[in-house]
Design goal:
heterodimer, A: Rossmann fold, six-stranded mixed sheet, B: ABC transporter involved in vitamin B12 uptake, BtuC, binds adenosine-5'-triphosphate, binds magnesium ion
Chain lengths: ~260, ~425
Amino acid sequence: MIDRSKPPVDAVDRTKPLVEMRDISISFGGIKAVDHVSIDLYPGEVVGLLGHNGAGKSTLIKCLSGAYRKDAGQILINGQEVEINNPRDARDQNIETIYQTLALADNLDAASNLFLGREIKKRGIVDDAKMEAEARKIMGRLNPNFRKFSVPVSALSGGQRQSVAIARAVYFNAKILIMDEPTAALGPHETQMVAELIQELKAQGLGIFLIEHDIHNVMKLCDRASVMKNGQLVGTVNVKDVTDDDILGMIILGKKPAHLAA
Amino acid sequence: MSDQGLSAPGTAQRRSVIDTLEIDVRLLGMLMAFAAVAVVFTIWTGGTFVGPRNVFNIAVQTVPVAIMACGMVFVIVARHIDLSVGSMLAMCSAIMAMSQTTWLPSVFGTEYGNPAVLGVTVVIGLAFGTLMGAVTGWLVGYQRIPSFIVTLGGLFVWRNVNWFTTNGQSVSLTDPNLLMFGGTEGVLGATASWVLGLIAAAIAVWAIFASRRNKQSHGFIVKPVWAEAVMAGLIVGAILFFVGWLSRYPIPEAKLKRLFEAKGVVMPEGYTAMHGLPISVLILIAVGVVMTVVARKTTFGRYIFAMGGNPDAAELSGINTRALTVKIFALMGFLCALAALVAQARLQSHGNDIGMLEELRVIAAAVIGGTALAGGVGTIYGAILGALIMQSLQSGMAMVGVDTPFQNIVVGLVLIIAVWVDIIYRKRLGLSK
Ligand SMILES: Nc1ncnc2c1ncn2[C@@H]1O[C@H](COP(=O)(O)OP(=O)(O)OP(=O)(O)O)[C@@H](O)[C@H]1O
Ligand SMILES: [Mg+2]
């Protein structure tokens, strides 16, 4: 969104998948947190990930963001198989993640967090003034009310922290964006801002995985929805073809609605 | 990182002087504690405490602990601890003592006191210290053994490997080139000290205004010029006072005579010379400056603080926290070796108990200086000041005849009280950590 030479919408090839996760499995001790799950994502598309608490949503996307190593399965980016062993590998693939737990260093200020791991340097020395100026620019667009640039982020509200985390993901030309419950801590106004942002990024051709519990938001923002239960994929549906109740049924009953099950 | 933002032009006048000067309140507290110690003992000793001679001695005695405390800040900020620094100091000291007196002379066939031998010795010592630290860091970072355990083990291991290295014997060290690192035997004299002091003052002023220009170039509101000028004035004043004071501490006549005799000339009648800055203090200042720059202005330092603030966030931000841990402990080991060099030069020998219990003083210095054991918070200048406060207390008490056991009791109490006051202060301000 910032400094991104906006690709014209139709220049993005929307017919080839950006991400394919095939047969992904990962277990902790005896628990199969993710059990042979396959999902994919196209450019300019928002795919919702739904399911009960503990269904395995965060764990699945952490295999993509490099926080966990999958036990089995393949990940393809633009049709090429890639190994993602740590967060640096994911960043190299232009994958940015907003974690459920936000993953901010509480003792550092907003700009230091925004640039953590990718500091702007001048002659080998971190250029705090420049980073703060950049942070002010992007925050001015994402959350114009944000003023607290010179205090540690521990002094920020949940919503303000969220906007720092979002700014970090958006600043660095992500092609694939993972958002794990980005609006969980937000008020209605901020939630609306995030929704607009998602639409804007989508229009630029990013692919977005959105983990979200609010069915209403899913129906509004997502093109497709993948539902998980007990580590397994229940199914993936086109949001246009289903109702709220169909999706709720998938989450609760763990099977696809009858009219799509064929 | 600490400007007042674009949005606060109207409020600037209403802020207090301390706010405007942007002095860290904690630093102010420590400076006041230090001043209190100085005033009490100055009155108690009828002025001797702040005399050039005692200021010189305190400065020289503080150096080894202060050097290590700088490294300990990084270790603690990263949520680790290093209990082995005293033993690592002893180990490095043993290696350097043996290599300069026995090993290298027998390999090269030179006499004790050969400057090349000393040079190689120092390199060996520093390399060995770094290696010891790196091993600790590997066990902690890659093998996930808690640093408390690894370094508690290290405390026992290195202390006793040290014993075997010298066969339990003390090694007397007389090489004048080595003794230069110790303090009294290695001073710059008045003129050179003044020159250095003026250069340092000029650099400090330049740094303050360069940082101001950088902020302005990005359109941030900066402190009023008078506030910058006051800060610059205070810093320049402190530097020149320190230099000036030490340059008034004369070298005893008997020693001057000896020095002249060693050169084979007769000392002119009425000749005097001043100590000036000790080389060991210069080493400490260099360590302090470099470590401060590393902490604030390099990604290495930034990552250490990020890791201390939230290890998961650091990892998820793509920081290799394991390698970072190795580097932190390796740096600690390096500084232990440097401290060992200064300590053995000051004591003019290597003894088995060199650096004994020093780990506790080093940790205490860092903590008194405001380093939070919970991680993520700490400053280099604080740790140096912490070491200085402890040494001043001890030296002051020794001067007025307080027994050693009681000195240690006071130091222990001061440690607890310093942290207690800090907790109360933070509660008042509503700060979480
Ligand atoms: N690091 C871990 N160690 C052990 N078990 C884990 C770990 N991470 C996740 N799990 C387990 O894996 C399962 C899936 O967890 P996950 O966090 O993916 O759920 P989720 O779908 O994101 O739930 P929520 O909606 O509550 O965020 C849970 O049973 C959880 O206890
Ligand atoms: Mg989750």
